Amino acid sequence: MSSGSESGPAGPGGGGGGAVIELRGVSLRFTTYNDKYYSLKRACIDLFLRREGSNQASFWALSGIDLAIGRGERVGIVGPNGAGKSTLLRVLAGIYPPSGGRLKVEGRVAPLIEMGAGFNYELSGEDNIYLNGALLGFDRKQMRARIDRIWEFSGLREFSSLPLKYYSSGMLSRLSFAVATEVDPDILLLDETLSVGDATFKARAHDRIMSVIDRSNVVIVVSHDMDALARICTRGIWIDRGVVQADGPIGAVIERYYDHVGEAQPVSAGHPAEAA
Ligand SMILES: Nc1ncnc2c1ncn2[C@@H]1O[C@H](COP(=O)(O)OP(=O)(O)OP(=O)(O)O)[C@@H](O)[C@H]1O
């Protein structure tokens, strides 16, 4: 995926000229709807007065993000609940188009973010493997060479012809995880909130994630597990209220984040739009 074409400045700690990911002033605004009884009459009045719907509230989940991430980088994103970490991953994955700024993402992105995204629930497990593979940039022949390993790892071979709508949520996440980790991505996006199956599967999933991390050119991980981030990552980015607070070597960023958390309670109360 690539949107925006110019090459820009290196972000603090960024890779500069060789950047495969570049964000310049990227912002994302969410709109929430407060009143479920908002009437057609009120909607018409809002339209007539050319004002934003009076039952809407909006807030910036990301504001003016400048980043450049180069080949070989392992980036850990830290920050309190509701800071915008997962939202940033979704913007990088192309799930949310930015509301403002420029975004460049070069290469095949494997988003281990949302299990089941890109699946068609009417189709069989097997058809969905091909569908998901296509979304990751693989044609049928390339997926055919991988399908055996995907069934092997997911342990779902006997359900290959069952429509996905009859899969349990655990089965869905296993299949999705097995497909996404069978490919060699240029850019791996990982969200720790990801839940992948039962205890046995989780243990196998951990080994598999470590192997995909090794095979990926760029890895971006969102996590609250600082030890894991310190082990996996070389660079850290601390985000708070949608703004980059620090960017640099992972150890230094974790230290600054901890210093800050020591002074202030990091958990945001409620949705920012409600407070606006
Ligand atoms: N689809 C959405 N519509 C409206 N608001 C949203 C949406 N997705 C996220 N938000 C809000 O955007 C803010 C950032 O959410 P996000 O999930 O990116 O936080 P996070 O840093 O990943 O938090 P956590 O560590 O708890 O996972 C939060 O206030 C959240 O409520």
From TrEMBL:
GO cellular component, one term: membrane
PROSITE patterns with a match to the protein in the record: ABC_TRANSPORTER_1, ABC_TRANSPORTER_2
GO terms of molecular function: ABC-type transporter activity; ATP binding; ATP hydrolysis activity
Xref: InterPro entries: AAA+_ATPase, ABC_transporter-like_ATP-bd, ABC_transporter-like_CS, ABC_transpr_TagH-like, Bact_Polysacc_Export_ATP-bd, P-loop_NTPase
Any Pfam family: ABC_tran
Organism: Tautonia plasticadhaerens
Keyword Nucleotide-binding tagged: yes
Record's protein name: Teichoic acids export ATP-binding protein TagH
Presence of keyword Nucleotide-binding: yes
Gene: tagH_1
ABC transporter domain ranges (all copies): 42-266
